[in-house]
Write a structure and sequence with these properties.
The complex is a heterodimer of chains A (about 600) and B (about 325). Chain A is α/β, with parallel strands linked by helices and about 600 residues long. Chain A folds into 4 domains: about 5-220, Pyruvate-ferredoxin oxidoreductase, PFOR, domain III (Pyruvate-ferredoxin Oxidoreductase, domain 3), CATH 3.40.920; about 235-420, Thiamin diphosphate (ThDP)-binding fold, Pyr/PP domains (Rossmann fold); about 425-495, no CATH class; about 500-610, 3-Layer(aba) Sandwich (Rossmann fold), CATH 3.40.50. The radius of gyration of chain A is 26 Å and the shape is globular. The model of chain A has no long low-confidence stretch (mean pLDDT about 95). In chain B, helix 1 packs across helix 6. The model of chain B has no long low-confidence stretch (mean pLDDT about 95). In chain B, the strands form 2 sheets. In chain B, strands 2-1-3-4-6-5-11-7 form an 8-stranded mixed beta sheet, with helices on both faces. A 3-stranded antiparallel beta sheet of chain B has the order 8-9-10. Chain B has a domain at about 5-210: Thiamin diphosphate (ThDP)-binding fold, Pyr/PP domains (Rossmann fold, 3-Layer(aba) Sandwich), CATH 3.40.50. Classes of the chains: A alpha/beta (about 600), B alpha/beta (about 325). Strand 9 of chain A pairs antiparallel with strand 12 (about 330-335) of chain B.
């Protein structure tokens, strides 16, 4: 048996929604990350709650990209496809590279399975034109049954362990250390030792099966870690990192964290995560609707909390009025929008960047609001922290944009030290202003002071009606309104955000790639790919969108050709054209609900250079 | 004895129409707050939009005059965050029961400790005279020139249907009656709904005429008091008795009926059947309109439960800050 060195590999686990593919994928990612590989994952699950077993719509996938060097995306196509049933093979084969290894459970390719998967013949491999030499066809169900014959488990529970057999097989294929997987399972099933033992036994069986039957025919691969950064790590999804970012910010600011929310895919995991952490004093209220989620957060903010509301695009539609209330009352609030496919209910489990103009402009009146877009699962932590800091220090609602791809994807997260993060200092009204203070007096940077109820001597009324800039009383005076509109805008413009960073061939690029938020990994991978092939390419990725970084015009104006690539019809491009005189970019727009495909980006960008 | 007077809660010059019921209510609220004695800086008055929702501007407390219909939701976030605040929510019939109906029922269901005031003039005043969800069927207004073709909400029914634990009613012009229920609402832990019957002199003048004057109330209303027989009339000559599944009005002394036969009010009864019957009386049905505290039942409050659960979990879990939270994950070390 030969062990070959690989730089990177993409594995896709697929099967029925109930086949435990997400768990198998997660364990494989953790095992790989633990030895220092870079990982990026993408769970691709169906919108149906539970489609009929074996049906095409019930297939759930989990793709993981592991690399010796840094990987930026879960990968366009996989090197290994695990298909636990016929429907998985039928729907997922399109994600496999032409020479990919396919692992199938032959026990789930019986006549009825093939019919459910709408195969026309009894030879699915021939029907799909798959070379049988690339297929590890294994009677997984039967082997799992044999393996657990003496376990005393019922048939249904036994078959639930099939995913572990596939995992064992993949671990053999990539020469992974099974002990790490075993520890994971012992931890996960700490209260059900029998279950942990059964799963461990099945993984070992899968590993041994590969070793005994295929070692002569197939190579085993190893991905060494080349660029590992020392430190302590955990696997984290974007949504969990977002929740952690809010917790960290609240602790840093010394405030109670309040989340008002209503369940909505793909943002609900933030509600789930935060509702677990009551021991940190986190208050979560699952409200009667999206409107109440945001409104209650405004109330919580008035009462002195770090207030957050979490949702996806349809929820933003409903929250807009309460967001606007926070704009005019100048109260801190973070509005998390985990973007999904739209319009309306759209594609609830799929990813897009189609809410950008909505969050920038989708409210009545002049309603400036900072917008921050997280660039990766782990960046969600920093982005949530920064959004909270800006909201609290500038007394404004802030929109934090993530998307289904970033929210559900995961990566290795180096445990942060809170001490390394900046302090958060809300502009509490100074005690010496007692007696002279009015609610719309401003600090030097244009921010209103915060007087939290309970403080004697600072009673005041806020509201949705325009107020006199001096007295805080209701005012419809034309000059005052004009002034207040400008003051609110100026306050947002005064917010300091980091400069736009240019990566790649900064000085002599023939093309500057521009994007925002969750497409960072794909755009970066495309740029690296092009540079490796001799192209001169640079990249500038927006995380801070409102206000824009100060050097935006300078960066965009420096390159002959600029392409703005986004998963919408050109919303960032439109915003940049509005903000930067004379900016005329090329555009790459794709709205499929799926992540970008690096190869397609490379092809399109190369064409632009060659034009 | 409270250290505050009504003056301590007053601010500004109300801008409602002369004769508007809101003026009467505001004066009673100032008085009730003074008698309750919570310091102004520990009070938050939160309203939506509408004529009556201007009220926070005339309070020397903390407050917000927010957006249409959302006062109960906003007040919920405020109370959960700082349970030490006395939180009053002010809404009209449109704000509270039309655009804000969802928040009204859920605040009641959750039983969050809010004092929810519903100023019911059965009309949209601020938008100049459209029918509201409490306008009676056939009501003629600018938006229903041929009369409405829909039935109104009866606020008590909605409150009880949402498992509300406190419902009281007063007429805006009846200062003492209003102050009494406001104090009872404050003392009730949990969501307390106070329906205030008030006149709109411009767009719905006379809507509550039957009970708007002292004389009218003597004839057409009944003040209900927990533990006391349900008697009314200028000389308390009438009473309420149970009959079958319903209630009936009887004259004491006639047909051998004595005071002992009269139903005794039980605001603390868990079963709200009879309380609801009382609350729905007076809709042109020959019964008097019930005023006072109709239902007042103790139940766990949402805000207390939230706080208690946090304390419970704090005691049970071993992580209490962010650094400790991180350690609860599967961690590996890369050297």
């Amino acid at each position: 048996m030969e062990v070959k060195e690989l730089n990177q590999v993409v594995v896709r686990f697929s099967g029925d929604s109930g086949d435990g593919m997400q768990l198998a994928g997660n364990i494989f990612s953790t095992v790989s990350a633990t030895v220092g590989n870079s990982i990026s994952t993408f769970p691709d699950y169906p919108a149906d709650i539970r489609a009929p077993q074996g049906s095409l719509t019930g297939v759930s996938g989990f793709q993981v990209h592991i690399g010796a060097d840094k990987v930026y995306t879960p990968g366009d196509q996989c090197d290994v496809l695990v298909a636990m049933n016929a429907a998985a093979l039928k729907t997922q084969y399109k994600y496999a590279k032409p020479n990919a290894t396919i692992i199938i459970d032959t026990d789930s390719f019986k006549k009825s399975d093939l019919e459910k998967a709408q195969f026309q013949t009894e030879d699915p491999l021939a029907e799909m034109n798959i070379d049988a030499d690339r297929v590890i066809a294994c009677p997984i169900s039967q082997m799992v049954k044999d393996c657990l014959a003496d376990s005393g488990m019922d048939n249904k529970s036994v078959l639930k362990c099939r995913n572990m057999f596939a995992l064992g097989l993949v671990c053999w294929l990539f020469d992974r250390d099974l002990d790490i997987a075993y520890n994971y399972l012992r931890e996960k099933f700490a209260k059900k030792a029998g279950l942990a033992d059964a799963n461990i036994k099945v993984i070992q069986a899968g590993y041994d099966y590969g070793h005994n039957t295929h070692s002569s025919a197939m190579n085993v691969y190893r991905i060494e870690s080349k660029t590992k950064e020392a430190g302590r790590y955990m696997d984290i999804t974007g949504n969990k990192a977002t929740a952690y970012g809010f917790i960290a910010a609240a602790e840093k600011a010394g405030l109670k964290l309040y989340l008002g929310s209503y369940p909505i895919t793909p943002a609900t995991d933030v509600l789930h995560e935060l509702s677990k952490h009551k021991s940190l004093g986190v208050t979560t209220v699952q409200c009667e609707d999206e409107i109440a989620g945001c409104s209650s957060a405004v109330g919580a903010s008035f009462a002195g909390a770090l207030a957050v509301t979490s949702t996806s695009g349809p929820g933003i539609c409903l929250k807009s009025e309460a967001m606007n209330l926070a704009v005019i009352m100048e109260l801190p609030l973070v509005v998390l929008d985990v973007q999904r496919g739209g319009p309306a209910t759209g594609l609830p489990t799929k990813s897009e960047q189609t809410d950008l103009l909505q969050v920038l402009f989708g409210r009545n009146g002049e309603s400036p609001m900072p917008v921050i877009a997280a660039t990766s699962p782990t960046d969600c932590f920093d982005a949530a922290f920064q959004a909270s800091k800006i909201a609290l220090e500038h007394m404004t609602p802030v929109v934090l944009l993530t998307d289904a791809f970033v929210a559900n994807g995961s990566a290795a997260f180096r445990l942060p030290e809170l001490a390394d993060y900046p302090a958060i200092n809300p502009p509490y009204v100074p005690e010496e202003m007692k007696g002279t203070w009015t609610p719309y007096m401003r600090a030097e940077n244009g921010t209103r002071y915060w007087a939290v109820p309970g403080r004697e001597g600072f009673c005041h009324i806020l509201g949705g009606l325009e107020k006199d800039c001096k007295t805080g009383a209701i005012s419809t005076a034309p000059e005052n309104h004009d002034l207040m509109v400008h003051l609110r805008q100026q306050k947002i413009d005064n917010i300091q955000v980091p400069d736009l960073e240019v990566l790649g061939d900064k000085e002599n690029a023939d093309l500057l790639i521009v994007g925002f938020g969750g497409t960072y990994g794909h755009l970066r991978a495309a740029m690296e790919d092009m540079r490796a092939n001799g192209k001169k390419v640079a990249m500038a990725h927006f995380k801070f969108i409102n206000p824009l970084p100060k050097n935006t015009a300078e960066v965009l104006g420096k390159y002959k050709k600029v392409v703005v690539a986004e998963q919408n019809m050109g919303q960032l491009a439109a915003f940049l054209r509005m903000k930067v005189d004379g900016f005329v970019p090329y555009q790459f727009n794709q709205v499929k609900g799926q992540p970008f495909v690096v190869n397609e980006l490379v092809k399109s960008f190369t064409e632009i250079i060659d034009k | 004895m409270s250290e505050y007077t009504a003056q301590d809660f007053k601010k500004g010059q109300p801008r409602w129409c002369p004769g508007c019921g809101d003026h009467f209510f505001l004066a009673s609220l100032h008085k009730a707050m003074a008698e309750i004695g919570v310091a102004p800086h520990n009070v938050a008055v939160i309203s939506g939009i509408g004529c009556s929702s201007r009220l926070p501007h005339y309070m020397a407390t903390y407050g917000m005059n927010t957006i249409h219909g959302r006062a109960a939701a906003i007040a919920t976030g405020c109370k959960v965050t700082n349970p030490d605040l006395a939180v009053w929510q002010i809404s009209g019939d449109g704000d509270g029961l039309a655009i804000g109906g969802n928040h009204f029922i859920h605040a009641n269901r959750r039983n969050i400790d809010l004092n929810m005031i519903l100023l019911n003039n059965r009309i949209y005043g601020l938008t100049k005279g459209q029918y509201s969800p409490t306008s009676p069927r056939g009501f003629v207004s600018k938006s229903s020139p041929y009369g409405t073709v829909e039935d109104p909400f009866r606020p008590a029914e909605l409150c009880f249907g949402a498992r509300g634990h406190f419902f009281a009613r007063a007429v805006a012009t009846d200062a003492q009656g209003t102050v009494d229920i406001l104090k009872a609402a404050y003392n009730h832990k949990g969501a307390s709904v106070c329906e205030i019957l008030q006149n709109c002199v411009i767009f719905n003048n006379g809507t509550h005429d039957a009970v708007y004057t002292k004389e009218g109330r003597a004839k057409n209303s009944i003040y209900v008091k927990h533990g006391e027989p349900l008697v009314f009339g200028e000389n308390n000559e009438y009473g309420i008795m149970q009959e079958g599944f319903g209630l009936k009005v009887v004259k004491i002394g006639e047909n051998g009926i004595t005071l002992k036969d009269i139903l005794v009010h039980d605001a603390h009864c868990q079963d709200n059947t009879l309380q609801l019957k009382l609350a729905l009386m007076g809709d042109g049905d020959g019964f008097p309109i019930a005023l006072g505290v109709i239902r007042d039942v103790e139940a766990p409050t949402y805000n207390d439960a939230v706080t208690a659960q946090i304390e419970e979990v704090k005691a049970a879990k071993k992580y209490h800050n962010f650094a400790e939270l991180l350690e609860t994950n599967d961690i590996w070390e890369v050297k």
